[in-house]
Design a protein that fits this description.
alpha/beta, globular, six-stranded mixed beta sheet, four-stranded parallel beta sheet
Amino acid sequence: MGDGEPRVPTAIAVTSADMALPPQDERTLPAAVLQDVDRRPLEHVLAELQTLVDQHGHVIVVCSQAVPAGVERRLHTVRALLETDRIALFRPSLPPLGIAVLARQLRQLASCDLSPGVLASAGRLLTHYIHAGALLGSVARLDHVPVTLKAHARSWVPGSQFGVVAHPVPQLVKVAPEAALDGPEFGTWLLVAKGQLAADWVTGTLAPSWRVQGLRETALPAESAAWWGTGRLTEFCAYLPDLSVLYQLVTSVRRSACHWCGIDVIGDRCVFCSATPPVYDDGSGGGRGGGRGSGGDRALDHRRDPALGRRRERRALTG
């Protein structure tokens, strides 16, 4: 797992300190924390990102869709001013705790012999193996999971609690003795972040039903209340903890070279420059040509992420 020439690992950055989880193992690299990028002077943030690029070659910023709009705008601005394709913004549709777990998995993989493009592409692949949800005291303001009118009505009943899975498949149940949520079909650990709601149902009922192999607790991310629509929650995330398993998953996927910037990637869209393979009319119904970026979603044989199918030529940052 990496006996090649010594190299400086790609930097994995997060947008707040509470998204930088403690190391999973001795090889987990520290996260670069881009604190308050929307509040600090622009020149300070520019200097910080330029230093990371100079030191690491490439930077992957993993952030939640719940970050303030000003954070995303500032990251777009900084990358545009630096005129570089060496900074990528990855914003998967995971709850905040799931984002923190994914960032840590990438920090684990950053210690291996993976090129920056493959490492960045791995984030999209690994989201398929994350089961993220929460125990909520109300679903009245929950926007990320479909909520029935009946569930909305139950939210107003004092003491009601709801078990919710937001990813990979939305689920919602009212907590009761017979309530259950479908979990992963493979061995995982469970990370639990307590908010203003006791975690008894998560640790005592959900964890055994999901047959988790280990359970850890952490602080609730500051963005969680906004993402879930309530502060009365306990967030949880089931994930693959072992570096060897993560590495095997990523290296089992076929690699190709981005036709635009030439960087190695998995999947059909470069996370750094956002280029997708050109589509040529070969007379057989719009098949793809034989350029370096051809192959499309066949590279992700595990499961197809709809985001990979979008054909956008370029954007300032990927998301």
